[in-house]
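FIELD: query
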Amino acid sequence: MTLSQKWNKGKWLFAMFIPCLLYYVLFKYLPIFGIVVAFKDYSLYKGIWASDWVGLKYFRMFFNSSDFWLLLRNTFLLGFYNLAFGFAAPIALALLLNEMRLRAFKRFVQTVSYLPHFISNVVAASMVIIFLSPTGGVFNRMLTSFGFDSINFMIEPGWFRPIYVLSEIWQHVGWESIIFLAALTAIDPSLYEAAGIDGASRWRKIVHVTLPGISSTMIVLLILKIGSMMEIGFEKVFLLANPATYANADILSTYVYRAGLVNGNFSYGSAIDLLTAAVSFIFLLNANYMSRKFTGNSLW
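FIELD: result
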């Protein structure tokens, strides 16, 4: 089949694909050329190409900065906790929903768990701050009702990571469970019947039939999660953090915002952002290699 024949056969499919293609070209591929700013002493007046080359100056500046290890530690720990707890939560929810027999209750739980995903980070962060308020927050009211003192969660550095991770789970657990629910539908029902004949309990069926049946999906999503572990979303951290919690809350993306946009040092901010992307790419390669070596499943 010639190229013209393929085009005539699927022209409407290609037309539907064009907006998606334009999105990735305009917002994902063209901005890649902007990484050259990290190697230049960028000036708004001179422009990108007329600005002077400085090589690795801003990378060395960041490595020698007193904030380097603090930012690296905070970013890694926040990403690791989000991976450790946030990855298992949608799997557990999908398994629980799969075991429900009351369809009406199952749909209700799915709807309630999906809704927070469509709430903007601004609204979600505002809700968290209101719920954790030391004066009228729901959680502090519960504490005082049991005779405990109220806690100002939002200015305690030790509470920032649990608050962030739990808010991420609450906001995205329902939406992310859709993929696992779809994977569960591909498991052959005869496997459950055979396990039941052998006397397997519902827990045994989950362990020996359900989890192996969705293991490939779990591995692929785990690799992607590891690859994005260092690229924590800027918005929610910026909205929940304050100077009192910077010891645990200040991460690479918030530092890039202050250094690059607030202070106007665009080259310095670009260098840090490029370094973050490079570390994430290394994590992705290693996770893919380890998965292919030990499980036989990988992205490529």
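FIELD: remark
The chain is about 70% helix and 5% strand.
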